[in-house]
Amino acid sequence: QQPVQSPQAVILREGEDAVINCSSSKALYSVHWYRQKHGEAPVFLMILLKGGEQKGHEKISASFNEKKQQSSLYLTASQLSYSGTYFCGTDASGGYNKLIFGAGTRLAVHP
Amino acid sequence: DGGITQSPKYLFRKEGQNVTLSCEQNLNHDAMYWYRQDPGQGLRLIYYSQIVNDFQKGDIAEGYSVSREKKESFPLTVTSAQKNPTAFYLCASSARDTEAFFGQGTRLTVV
Questions:
Q1: What angle do CA A74, B97, A56 make, to 5 degrees?
Q2: For chain A, N or C: smaller number of CB within 10 Å?
Q3: Tell me: the pLDDT tens digits for A16-55?
């Protein structure tokens, strides 16, 4: 079942912060976050594993609440390059990366 | 350089025709995936494979077929049974507990 992302869209001025949320009805092994620019492939941002391990870019932070099956991506001091669509992918297959993606959150950062 | 390659970048299909999209990876990943993306939408899982000679249907497998005869290759055939095939198709691969690497995509259009 598809995870639910919120909000659907965000508009920011440069330097502002944003939080994107992802929730699932299934017990999750991991949550992945990707950013996609129009017409391009998704780019990896962060993976959060059950048990607390995280892997990803230094300037990106995220959280994973295993009890609630929820994850949040924190974008701080936004830059123009942060614009794009953010997707969370959830893995309920026990680490075999059967990723089911949410519908996405569109982020636009303006000068 | 290691990576995942999709070809062709653009593909045109006539009504009633089968077409095959290529996906090759040299990352030594066991798992490979096919996703479909419609304009303004998220990524929907078509098929995935965790090991050679084995694959499972995703959420929207009807009208598609795959094979996994080699670890490096996971071609997707869009059959004439797929009534609305126009979309952006993304192939991905991954190892356990790591991020998914995406190809650059194939844009399929029915003419």
A1: 30
A2: C
A3: 999 999 999 999 999 999 999 988 999 999 999 888 777 7
Taking contacts as CB-CB distances below 8 angstroms, the residues of chain A near B43 are: 42, 87, 89, 101
Q: How far apart are CA A1 and CA A69, in angstroms?
A: 13
CB contact under 8 A, B50 and A96: yes
Cβ partners under 8 Å of residue B40, min gap 6:
none
Closest chain A residue to B5, measured at CA: A41
CA distance B68 to B72: 8
- In which band, very low, low, confident or very high, does the pLDDT at A57 lie, cut at 50, 70 and 90? confident
Q: Return the number of other C-beta atoms located less than 10 Å from residue A11's C-beta.
A: 12
Name which of A31, A47, A50, A29 is nearest A94 in CA terms: A29
DSSP string, B54-96: EEEE-TT-TTEEE--SBTTB--EEE-TT-S---EEEEEEEE-T
